[in-house]
Amino acid sequence: MSATPPRTGARRLVTTTLPTEHGTFVMHGYAGGGGLGNVALVMGDVAAEEDLAPLVRVHSECLTGDALGSYRCDCGEQLDAALHEISLAGRGALVYLRGHEGRGIGLLAKLEAYALQDAGVDTVDANLRLGYPADARTYDEAAEILHDLGVRRVRLMSANPDKAAKLAELGIEVVARHRLPVVDRPENSFYLTTKRHRMGHDAAAPPVWGELVAGRVPDVAPTPDDAALLDRYGPLVALGRPATIAQLGQSSDGFIAARTGDAEFVTGPADREHLHRLRALVDAVVVGAGTVVADDPRLTVRAVPGADPVRVVLDPAARVPADARVLTDGAAPTLWCLGPAAGVPATAAHVQVVRLPLTAGRFDPADVLGELHARGLGRVLVEGGGRTVSQFLAARLLDRLFLTIAPVLIGDGVPGIRFTGSDRMADALTAPTRRFVLGPDVCTEFDLTAVRRP
Question: Which CATH architecture has domain 239-451?
Answer without folding.
Answer: 3-Layer(aba) Sandwich (3.40)
